[in-house]
Every structure is written in C-alpha cells, then in structure tokens.
Amino acid sequence: MSAYDDSNIFARILRGEIPCDKVYEDDYALAFRDIAPQTPIHVLVIPKGAYVSADDFSEKASDAEIAGFFRALGKVARDLGAVEPGYRILANHGRDAHQEVPHFHMHVFAGKDLGRMIKPADK
Ligand code: 5GP
C-alpha cells in the first residue's frame, strides 16, 4: 500500500485550505457533498485521520476513531432522510476500483432508485 499523501484534496479540505459543502462534522469525521454528484444526494464521509483506504483505516485507526467514523456515517444517512427510502454506501480503493482521492472515504448515495449493486453484465 502506498503511503498517505497529505497533499490529497480531502486532506486539504480537512485543513480548511479549500472549501466544501459541509453536512456534518465531529471530532472523528467530516461529511460534505460530492463536487460531482452521481445521485440526487451524494455525500462523502471521511475520517479526520490520515488513512488511505478501508483496509488501512481498519488496521491503524484506534477503536474510538473507527466507532466515531461509523457513528458519523449513520448519523449522516439519518440526517439526510435517507433511511426509509434507502441509500447505498461505497468505498473505492486502488486501481481496480478507480479510487481518485487517496484519503479513505465512504460515498453515501441516495435520493433515487439506485438499481442493483452490480449490473449482471459487469460480472
Ligand atoms: P473515489 O473515486 O476516490 O472513490 O471518489 C472521489 C470522489 O471525490 C469523486 O466522487 C469526486 O467527484 C469527489 N471529489 C473530488 N474532488 C473533490 C473536491 O474538491 N470536493 C468535493 N466535494 N468532492 C471532490
């Protein structure tokens, strides 16, 4: 796994160097709207610590960071009103998943019928 690069765009958002459309923040996580939304509601939830991916986060983050991150993720889904109609969470890592920003983040997609998880033709 490549080392964390603190010049990535989400690190810069966390440092306040560039703005974001914030929807939630606490000691462990920041959530903001994706700049290029793929669904009517498309929010990114990121931990405040420097982690590249879900596997990096799960290996190195403290129990408090992991709990805090997932509690924030659930709060964001509830606050967005996405629980009843439904939502999808997704995290990309690495080349095959086309990860664009190397700071661990979970996408929250909602606001429309999201279809099946993977199209049969994609298998
Ligand atoms: P990935 O492919 O790494 O899972 O997704 C990265 C996401 O970050 C993309 O959906 C992209 O639109 C979003 N993104 C990239 N740069 C920015 C930015 O500067 N601000 C915000 N809000 N989202 C960004």
General description of the model:
With 123 residues, this protein is an alpha+beta fold. The chain has three helices and five strands; from the N terminus they run H-E-E-E-H-H-E-E. The chain has helices at 9-14, 54-60, 63-79; strands at residues 22-25, 29-33, 41-47, 87-90, 106-110. Strands 1-2-3-5-4 form a five-stranded antiparallel sheet, covered by helices on one side. The longest helix has 17 residues, at 63-79.
Bound chemical compounds: guanosine-5'-monophosphate
Helical percent range? 10-25%
The largest sheet is: 5 strands, antiparallel
Helix segment tally? 3
SSE-based structural type = alpha+beta
Mean pLDDT across every amino acid position: 95
The gross shape turns out to be globular
Unreliable stretches (pLDDT < 50, length at least 5) are none
What share of residues are in beta strands? 15-25%
- The string of secondary-structure elements, in order, is HEEEHHEE
Task: Let me know the number of strands.
Answer: 5
* Spatial gap, N to C terminus: 26 Å
Topology:
Layout: H1 9-14, E1 22-25, E2 29-33, E3 41-47, H2 54-60, H3 63-79, E4 87-90, E5 106-110
Antiparallel strand pairs: 1-2, 2-3, 3-5, 4-5
Brief summary:
This protein has about 120 residues and is an alpha+beta fold.
Key attributes of the depicted protein:
about 120 residues; alpha+beta; five-stranded antiparallel beta sheet; 3 helices; 5 strands; binds guanosine-5'-monophosphate
